[in-house]
Amino acid sequence: MRIVFLGPPGAGKGTQADRISEHFQIPHLATGDILRKAIEEGTELGDEAHPYMNAGDLVPDELVEKMLADRLASDDARKGFVLDGFPRDAEQARFLDQVLEEEGARLDRVLLFSCEPEELVKRITGRRVCPTCETNYHVISHPPKTEGICDKDGTELIQRDDDSEETFRHRLEIYEKQTKPLIQGYRDRGILHEVDSRGSADEVFLELTTLLEGPR
Questions:
Q1: Contact (Cβ atoms closer than 8 angstroms) between residue 157 and residue 130
Q2: Residue 61 burial by CB count (10 A; 0-12/13-18/19+): exposed, middle or buried?
Q3: Is 84 helix (H, G, I), strand (E, B) or coil?
Q4: Where are the alpha helices (DSSP H) in the chain?
Q5: CB neighbour list of residue 199: distance below 8 Å, 6 or more residues apart
Q6: Are strands 127-129 and 192-196 parallel, antiparallel or unpaired?
Q7: Tens digit of pLDDT for each residue in 157-214?
Q8: N or C: which end of the chain has fewer CB within 10 A?
Q9: Which residue in 2, 13, 36, 109 is the catalytic one?
Q10: d(Cα 86, Cα 94) in Å, to the nearest integer?
Q11: d(Cα 65, Cα 73) in Å, to the nearest integer?
Q12: In the 8-state DSSP scheme, what is residue 190?
């Protein structure tokens, strides 16, 4: 099962991709997470990507595509995957199709997460993370026991640079301009399904599994 999650940042794709990954026993491939890890580890790719991510801009295609092609060639990804954060535009979609075709594979489903912009702003700007253990919190929906402090190790929580309101609204603008045109193309191929991501995590997960376990 080869799945792509589309939708604006903050729509819950990452959370649901983790659950779908566990449910179907396929890897969750999140380009954003892999890039952040590369930045933290100081790799060559991370150093190149850091200025773009800090500004809320898209990382150049050649950097993301090199990383993704290597990951898709891994043994576990050949059996299927849930891809979150790629493709972002028509050119990346063509690249993904080409990589899969070389493996004798194709996309099975593209799931589009929909949510109102102002709800997305609340979700993203309230996120906090522990820089030590990387546990995620939210000031409203999942606050720590002590404000601003990680429950697990007592480290002061931080807000990632790309979670600030200014940077996030810039990311939404980019999504509107570059990612939305993909939607019609996947719809024309008959593999696009829209998911209302405003519900609880359990409600959205139930909708996803119903779609994925149903007839193709």
A1: yes
A2: middle
A3: strand
A4: 13-24, 31-41, 44-54, 61-72, 75-78, 90-102, 117-125, 165-174, 181-188, 201-213
A5: 207
A6: unpaired
A7: 999 888 889 888 988 888 888 887 788 889 999 999 999 988 888 999 999 999 998 7
A8: C
A9: 13
A10: 11
A11: 12
A12: T
Token pair in block for residue 37:
């890890």
| CA–CA distance, 171 with 173 (Å, rounded to integer) | 5
Q: What is the mean pLDDT of the chain?
A: 89
Quickly tell me which residue has 């063509």 as its tokens: 94
Cross-strand partners of 142: 138
Active site residue 160: yes
In the chain, the amino acid numbered 145 is K
Handedness of CA 173, 174, 177, 182 (dihedral sign): negative
How many Cβ atoms from other residues are within 10 Å of residue 25's Cβ?
10
Instruction: Please say whether the structural domain 2-117+162-213 has been given the CATH code 3.40.50.300.
Output: yes
Of the candidates 2, 109, 123, 171, the residue annotated as catalytic is 171
Q: What is the DSSP letter of 88?
A: -
At 12-67, the pLDDT tens digits run 898 899 999 999 999 999 887 778 877 888 888 788 888 888 887 878 888 888 87
Catalytic residue among 88, 109, 123, 128: 88
Tell me the mean pLDDT in the region 113-124: 88
d(CA 41, CA 35): 10
In the annotation, is 123 catalytic? no
Whether residue 88 lies in the annotated active site:
yes
pTM for this structure? Answer: 0.77
Instruction: Report residue 187 as tokens.
Output: 């719809």
